[in-house]
Write a structure and sequence with these properties.
The two termini are 33 Å apart. The longest helix has 29 residues, at 104-132. The protein is an alpha/beta fold. The chain has seven helices and seven strands, in the order E-H-E-H-E-H-E-H-E-H-E-H-H-E. It has one domain: 3-Layer(aba) Sandwich (Rossmann fold), CATH 3.40.50.720. It binds nicotinamide-adenine-dinucleotide (NAD). Nicotinamide-adenine-dinucleotide is lined by residues 18, 20-24, 42-44, 47, 66-68, 89-92, 113, 140, 142-143, 185, 187-188, 190-192, 219.
Length: 251
């Protein structure tokens, strides 16, 4: 049986954060291909401009700005109008710093981008979704939301916290017709910063990283999981943290 997905999101407006690169970019391209109107947000204006030129469609509206600024969140929601779904993808890493080496700025920034910004965007779109009794929220978590050995203390903590936030939104607003889920990727070939600034982290995690069951995948592979959770095909899925990692969590 072949399935034509080219109209799966026709008539729907989806917000994608981190649209300028990697997983967010791939999700944006696929959503456009499946008929959506996409509001793509990113802190990098040049990346968004490149995306707009490449796609050349009025179905893509871009918003350049730092998601940790409330003004950016307001601009995104205003550009969107009616919001049918949100793919909250933007995220940053933590220089692989274990707790004893963590600095306050890194910790705060990682939590601001990976947890507080998605919360603020969620808070901004929930009232209209509740009013309409419909909405799909998908967050990009990480393998680091399940385990501690593939990042520093900040990233691991922020993704564990994001998983809790997703479950809370799912619990409170599922009865109002809003679904909240997360996709937790394993390794993905993107521009994300994977610098180790801790020699102790290199020593402690080196061998463990060799247990990844599959090589890193292209971002388009993870985008498929995101779109499924955004789509009506996932109508019975709420509060799930879906590994999209080729089986890494089974180890
Ligand atoms: N690449 C991986 O191996 C991997 C694995 C698991 C989870 N993830 C998660 O996937 C998500 C996407 O990461 P990616 O790998 O595609 O990275 P990426 O760096 O290629 O893309 C992330 C995009 O988010 C944007 N961004 C970052 N901070 C922002 C901010 N404050 N405001 C607005 N935009 C901002 C960046 O400019 C960038 O374009 C992240 O949440 C990351 O934690 C990635």
């Amino acid at each position: 049986m072949s399935t034509d997905f080219s109209t799966r999101f026709t008539g729907k407006t989806i917000i994608v954060t981190g649209a300028g690169s990697g997983i967010g970019r791939a999700a944006t391209l696929r959503l456009l291909a499946e008929g959506a109107r996409v509001v793509g947000a990113d802190v990098s204006a040049p990346r968004l401009e490149e995306l707009a030129v490449e796609t050349g469609t009025d179905n893509l509206v871009t918003v350049a700005g730092d998601l940790t600024d409330q003004a950016t969140v307001d601009a995104i929601v205003s550009a969107a109008g009616t919001v049918d779904g949100v793919a909250s993808v933007a995220g940053i890493t933590d220089n692989w710093l274990p707790a004893a080496e963590m600095d306050d700025d890194t910790w705060q920034r990682v939590f601001d981008v990976n947890l507080t910004a998605p919360m603020r965007l969620t808070r901004a779109v929930l009232p209209q979704m509740i009013e309409r009794g419909a909405g799909a929220l998908v967050y990009v978590s990480s393998e680091a939301g399940f385990r501690s050995s593939i990042s520093g203390a900040g990233y691991t903590s922020s993704k564990h916290a994001l998983n809790g936030f997703v479950k809370s939104v799912a619990f409170y607003y599922g009865p109002k017709g809003v679904r909240a889920n997360a996709v937790a990727p394993g390794g993905v070939n993107t521009n994300i910063d994977i610098a180790f600034n801790s020699s102790y982290a290199v020593e402690r995690t080196g061998k463990l990283l060799e247990t990844m069951p599959t090589p890193s995948v292209e971002p388009e592979v993870v985008a498929k999981s995101i779109l499924w959770m955004l789509s009506d095909d996932a109508e019975n899925i709420n509060g799930a943290i879906l590994p999209s990692d080729g089986g890494w969590t089974t180890i």
